[in-house]
Amino acid sequence: MLILPIVNNKRVMNVEIKLKGAEKVRRGVYADEAKEGEIIVNREKFSDSSFHQSRDINAPIDFIRSKSILFPRNFLVTTRFNDSNKYFDVYKVPQPPKKVNDELDALYSKTITDMQCEIPDKPGRGRYVSFHDLGIDKNLDTDRISMLQRIVKEERNTDRWGEKFREAGLTDLPETADFLNHFECTVLSDTTIAEESLQDTLRALSSINTRDYRNLKKYYRMAKSNADIYTKISYISKIVYDRPLSLRHVHDSKQKQYIKRMEDGE
User: Fold this and answer.
1) 19-35: string of b/e by CB count within 10 Å (b at 16+)?
2) How does DSSP assign 4-53, residue by residue?
């Protein structure tokens, strides 16, 4: 389970990140049919490829794209074995979006790896995601976003925006918003805490400087950084498409859902 800690509306939230359109199509598949933790694209297996030996974090998405050039279609990802037997589950996953940069590809590859590491009928182990550590914020500086906003404001003909963005070297900004829209971001409401409460806890623990204090401080710093980066990308989406990115909330035991928009300045 990939978890994005994020601060919003004076609350610290934990957001589960998955790929949109990925669905579990088979359960309890016996080991003889395929390997656990496998990626299968057009009958080509990740474990049989040179990508399997690579230490590059983007090996999964590089493999998927390389085997999809002639026939881009859905591919399969198998989970790990169940602890008590040699059965696993199978996901069907849509084709990845076109490449924007290595940093966004790393986020995509992490979601694929997370599926590969899943163990059927066992609660997932949470793994934190830091947009900053992945380098997603590398090109999201304020000057570039302001330049994008100026082009949209001054050029009324939307058909010319693409050309204007290319001329200004800003194409990656709307493409970043497009890429992030391929992920389903669900707030795990039962894990949400008030930001002030977390700050009080950090102040109380600061004098002893234990490992718990340092981990909690790192977690809070990550949540604030993720909020800043997510808000920038959401603002870019608002500028170009007139809609911000959204976080999906699961807010009761019946898994009812509603959309909470995270707009600039929230």
Assistant:
1) beebeeeeeebeeeebb
2) EEEEETTEEEEEEEEETT-EEEEEEEEGGGS-TT-EEETTEEGGGSGGGG
pLDDT digits (tens, 9 = 90+) for 162-188: 999 999 999 999 999 999 999 999 999
**What pLDDT, on the 0 to 100 scale, is given for residue 250?**
55
Write 220-224 long-range contacts (CB < 8 A, 24+). Answer: 220/5, 220/12, 222/5, 222/128, 222/130, 222/132, 223/5, 223/6, 223/7, 223/12, 223/13, 224/7
pLDDT digits (tens, 9 = 90+) for 66-86: 999 999 999 999 999 987 778
| Residue found by looking up tokens 């008590």 in the block | 84
Q: pTM of the entire structure?
A: 0.89
